[in-house]
Design goal:
- The protein has 154 residues and is of the alpha+beta class.
- It contains 7 helices and 6 strands.
- A 4-stranded mixed sheet has the order 4-3-5-6, with helices on both faces. A two-stranded antiparallel sheet has the order 1-2.
- A hairpin with a 2-residue loop joins strand 5 and strand 6.
- Helix 3 packs across helix 6.
- The longest helix has 28 residues.
């Protein structure tokens, strides 16, 4: 007789393997975005990193994603800017957490400027955005914490 716990364990392993293999393909079909294939044949999502070239956390995220088989597009928010529509989307997803209140840019703003609409502030001062913002298909992630790293691990 087969042990019930053994059967459940095998099912969990199969589901995890199926999710890792098929979710990128499903996402590609739904979003119309292509997936990349790395040297080992693993599939990875097209990723876009919004950050700063001089930001250590952004560079670490890019390095880790490259090591994981992803080929992210990097957008320097200072040099390239961020479309207002994307900023609005990020604000809708992350709310006030998107505004980095510990940055030197924030500290340099007057109280009147700080009281303005966050979308207007981020449009004028894209370096106020907490970094990195990583877009993977329809999903977006803020920062490079352990939960984001686990979500984007191949």
């Amino acid at each position: 007789m087969i042990d019930k716990n053994f059967t459940q364990s095998v099912c969990r392993i199969f589901v995890k393997m199926a999710i890792k293999e098929f979710i990128p393909a499903i996402n590609c079909e739904i979003t119309g975005r292509k997936t990349n294939t790395d040297r080992q044949g693993m599939r990875s999502l097209d990723l876009t990193i919004y950050g700063l070239k001089t930001c250590d956390t952004c560079r670490k995220a890019q390095k880790d994603l490259l090591a994981g088989g992803h080929n992210p597009t990097v957008i320097d928010v200072r040099a390239d800017g961020v479309p207002r529509a994307e900023l609005a989307r990020f604000l809708a997803l992350f709310g006030e957490d998107l505004v980095n209140r510990r940055s030197t840019t924030w500290r340099g703003l007057s109280e009147q400027e700080r009281a303005r609409d966050p979308l207007d502030l981020l449009s004028e001062h894209p370096t106020l955005m907490k970094r990195p913002v990583i877009v993977a298909g329809e999903a977006a992630y803020l920062g490079w914490g352990k939960s984001v790293q686990a979500a984007l691990a191949p």
